[in-house]
Amino acid sequence: MPKVYFPDEADILDMRYDIAFKAVFAQSNPKSRKALSGLLSACIGREVSVIELNANEPAPLSAWDKQIRYDIACRFESGELADVEMTLHPAPDEQFREEYFAARLFASQDIRGSDDEYAELKNIYQINILAEGNRYKDEALVHCFRFHDAENNLSLNGQMNIITVELAKAEKLAREKPVREMGSAEVWAVFLRYHPEKQKRELINEILKEKEDIAMAGQAALEFSKEELEWFRNESKLKYELDMQSMRARAKREGREEGKKEGIKEGEQKIIDLLKSGKSPDEIIRDYDS
Questions:
Q1: Could you tell me if residue 9 is inside a domain?
Q2: Are 38 and 210 spatial neighbours (Cβ–Cβ below 8 Å)?
Q3: Residue among 180, 195, 201, 225 at smallest CA distance from 35
Q4: If I label 224, which of 12, 13, 161, 280 is the partner at 20 to 30 A Cα–Cα?
Q5: How many domains does the chain have?
């Protein structure tokens, strides 16, 4: 593979946006498949190989559905299933969504044949990469949750795995740890956290030089044309506008449910104040939800 290098002034596709993340990692070519296999191997903690992408859940009934998802569902060579999702601004109920979709993924395995049994069920991995915020107050970059009896300190040894990766914790790694001393999950987290930032190009180019699977993701990002980059920006803008519409509808609904007209006014006034503050769309959404 040719050497991959991000020029100092290059405008790089920001993979922390879910639609851009899927565009890079869900392409039907060897580079994208290798990059996805490398990322999932890093998250899970062992080598896996993606052999196929599976159909995502049905499209939402309404374009205004705030729960629209840009996930990647796939199958490993071992037959195990995974669903990976990039979340820029995790919602307060994000962990419940993770549990819900993990259950759906596990139940999607069909063992209704006369020769099938429960023992044939495979491991599933619901993986959520959290682009911003610290959900857990420890320093662990990756958490893997399974069924566990906390009172008796016993594991069910089940096959459902919910994995979270918090990119905000990569900031300390980038400051204090050389690339060659980073583990696979650490170097992927640093790359995903900083790849669009021009002031971090030296660090990112070192990662691209050292890690072939990450270099393939970088190559995929570089291959998008200026027109395609503009399309991604427009899609992100549209998603922001839909989110704002959803917030207005939620404010009105909450006001009606409480039977207080002032609830509607307060919700709408908060949006107006945020719009006048000069903050970016992402900051407005985050502040409103906080």
A1: no
A2: no
A3: 195
A4: 280
A5: 2
And the tokens for 124? 């599933």
Q: What is each CA distance from 255 to 157, 246, 262, 264, 268, in whole angstroms?
A: 45, 14, 7, 5, 10
Is residue 48 within 8 Å of 80, Cβ to Cβ? yes
- Please indicate, yes or no, whether residues 213 and 117 belong to a single structural domain of this protein: yes
pLDDT by residue (tens digit) across 249-268?
Answer: 766 776 666 656 666 667 67
For residue 136, the enclosing domain spans 18-224
CA pair distance 40, 42, nearest whole angstrom: 5
Query: pTM for this one?
Result: 0.77
Closest listed residue to residue 164, CA positions, set 217, 228, 85: 85
Domain check: are 170 and 220 in the same one?
A: yes
Tell me how far CA of residue 7 lies from CA of 119, 179, 222, 227, 239, in angstroms: 51, 19, 10, 19, 29
- Rounded Cα distance between 29 and 220, Å, is 10
pLDDT digits (tens, 9 = 90+) for 98-144: 999 999 999 988 877 767 788 889 999 999 999 988 899 999 999 99
Using the structure block, give the residue that is written with the tokens 């962990």: 95
Between the alpha carbon of residue 95 and those of residues 91, 116, 136, 224, 247, the distances in Å are 9, 32, 11, 33, 20
- Last-in-domain residue among 179, 205, 224: 224
Cβ-based burial of 226 (10 A; exposed 0-12, middle 13-18, buried ≥19): exposed
